[in-house]
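fyi for ur records
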Amino acid sequence: MTLVGEVEVVRVHELDGADVIRPLLPQATPERLRSHDWLFPEHCDEDANLRAAIHVFVLRSHAGTIVVDTGVGDGKPRVEFPQWSQLRTGFLDRLRAAGVEPDEVTTVVCTHLHVDHVGWNTTRDGDRWQPTFPNATYVFVRDEYEHLSERIDAASPDLRAAFADSVRPIADAGLATLVERDHAVDEQVRLVPTPGHTPAHVSVAIASRGERALVSGDVFHHPCQLAFPEWSTGADTDPVLAAVTRTRVLEDLAASGTLLIGSHFVGPVVGGVARRGDAFMLRDR
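which gave:
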């Protein structure tokens, strides 16, 4: 658990994500990674393979209990990522072990609507997908939701499947709220536009008692993108914009002392951002 002022940030691990993240960053060769020693051993193994994970973050603020992104989910059929198909992860047991009951969650925020960020929005009940967090308001960025809805028939198979089993059922249940990209969830938590990975991708900013943090979403898939901000991934819809956004975010974090909370980081998931030559590095908070 991390404290940002009065806001508690609890990381609940869902599963390892290295087998999916590594192919997205072919630029991350051992030679280039080893030029940045701070990446070892937490963020890369001894053979310079990227380490990555999928996490769900729970924020306890004045206004309630907020879940940021919901991972891959259990029991969901996927074909492009067969390693994510029909999972049985025990995630809800870990969520409860972290002191969070699904019924107590007041808000769910999705930074974007990709497969690995919406999965636990729903769980199967018989032949239906029901909201996992039945008392929560699910916050979707309007532009993100409408952009995907209008193009869903042409989307990839897994994106179509995730929309059908993890997004549309929330709207059908009347729990979805469409918001602007700079929406304030409460006085301590708000959305920040960080486009590029998707057209209306957002990150989640926390500010309390003079302390600040940013839950990144997919602005970063791995800490090596601090060392090489120009490295966009094969999953970015606009790689050029993603790199511009990433550099801007890093400059802001380094200048302001805001903590970075990496949605796919392994090892130190929370850290400060410091300049290192022409690039950046993750440092202990």
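The CA atoms of residues 160 and 235 lie 15 Å apart. thats all i got for now
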